[in-house]
Design brief:
disordered C terminus, two-stranded antiparallel sheet
Length: 418
């Protein structure tokens, strides 16, 4: 049994491991079953009315502009509207199942990059216990676990050195949530270092276009469907930070709303361009840890500067921080701090309903998030400065001459992932 599991990409588990996995599965499910009955404002204001309209109008509802999410999410609601069970039970049940799928993928990722069965099953358990995961799906009735699962699959296939499949899953994440773009800059760095080809990026527009075709056929104008993410960005502009711990919680999120919103958008674009330009000046060995470092850095940086960020928008950094710590146990404080910030922002909304400030001022968490950004950034800086991690022009020419071409870093990746 152990040999078969290893061939399939899983470590061979002994009886103790199996008991632990079973216990964590039961505990994770128990937490979610307890919380599944909670009705939040988001359910009452959005998903429940949308499902009711779908029951009444059927697929023709897709032709209307009553929904502001991408059609792929509404297709799921349409299916739920057809089921002979309580809609909230079906909705939360789906996302609870995806919590466990994401936990399995997380375990496979950690096994792939560390080769440790202990770390692998620990990562599985952590994904089930992390409060921002179960609060998002089982309690809040949010859908972020969908695109996060696709992002995890994206990283899993990057670690297998299968960039085409990795970019397919990244495209699937984009189909569901614009927040997948938080980590897009790290893909550019992978492209510069010949880890990804330009043709792989075509999955992003191709999958999005395919996903909107049914809604287009149903009757909604094509430009409306193409511009859904743009329309989302024009909403919730009443505050520079909608309970996320970013720079606007330090400088003030109720002043110069229009000016700072526009300036902040251009500011983050400028910062990202500078960073990508600087990181593209040399070629580097693309190890698994470097991939996670880059993705985590951008997952923290982008929502830290972008205006109008919601309290849930640290979720990508949450899961990446767990992988980061599993690869380097000395960095255990990174996910602890990130999850502390993220869950506090959750509770500011779920517990206070926007009526009052949380017990600890947002600015405190914003400074803590800034500290995490600096620490991860320093790790990347130290990696890039190390001559052993840089690839010289001679090495590139030698690799091309030997027939390895653009995959000169693949041996380093395979070595780390073994």
């Amino acid at each position: 049994m152990g040999k078969l599991m290893k061939k399939s990409g899983w470590p061979g588990f002994d009886k103790t491991d199996v008991l632990y996995l079973a216990a964590m599965t039961v505990i994770g499910m128990a937490i979610r079953l307890i919380l599944r009955v909670v009705t939040t404002d988001d359910w009452g204001m959005y998903w429940d009315p949308w499902i009711s309209d779908l029951k009444e109008m059927g697929f023709s509802y897709l032709a209307t502009d009553r929904y502001d999410y991408t059609p792929t999410f509404v297709y799921i609601l349409w299916v739920i509207s057809k089921l002979p069970i309580n809609p909230m039970t079906a909705y939360k049940g789906l996302h609870i199942v995806l919590d466990f799928v994401a936990a399995i993928v997380m375990g496979k990722i950690v096994w792939r990059v560390t080769g440790s069965s202990v770390k692998s099953i620990t990562a599985y358990g952590l994904m089930l216990l992390v409060p921002t995961i179960w609060a998002n799906s089982a309690l809040w009735a949010q859908c972020d676990i969908i695109f996060m699962t696709f992002l995890l699959l994206c990283f899993y296939y990057f670690f297998q050195d299968r960039p085409n499949l990795a970019m397919f899953f990244y495209g699937m994440a984009f189909v569901f949530k614009l927040q997948s773009l938080f980590i897009f800059p790290f893909l550019v760095i992978l492209w510069v270092n010949k880890k990804v080809q330009l043709k792989h990026f075509l999955w992003i527009p191709a999958l999005y276009f395919l996903s909107i075709i049914p809604a287009w056929i149903a009757g909604r104008p094509l430009m409306d469907l193409i511009n859904i993410y743009m329309a989302q960005g024009a909403q919730d502009v009443w505050s520079l930070s909608i309970k996320w711990a970013n720079i606007y919680q330090i400088i003030g999120n109720q002043y110069f709303l229009l000016e700072y919103a526009e300036a902040g958008t251009w500011l983050i674009l400028g910062i990202l361009m500078i960073l990508m330009f600087a990181m593209a000046q040399k070629r580097y060995k693309i190890t698994n840890e470097f991939i996670v470092q880059m993705a985590l850095f951008y997952a923290i940086l982008t929502p830290y500067i972008l205006p109008h960020m919601h309290e849930r928008y640290g979720c990508v950094a949450d899961i990446l921080a767990i992988i980061y710590a599993m690869m380097n146990v000395k960095k255990f404080y990174i996910p602890l701090a990130q999850l502390l910030v993220s869950f506090n922002c959750y509770m500011a909304y779920l517990s206070h309903r926007g009526a009052s400030e949380p017990p600890i001022y947002y600015g405190v968490w914003a400074f803590l998030e800034l500290g995490l950004l600096i620490l991860v950034g320093l790790d990347i800086w130290n990696y890039m400065r190390n001559p052993e991690n840089q690839i010289t022009e001679k090495q590139i020419k030698d690799a091309a001459a030997s027939g390895e071409g653009s995959t000169e870093h693949s041996a380093a990746v395979r070595k780390e992932g073994a």
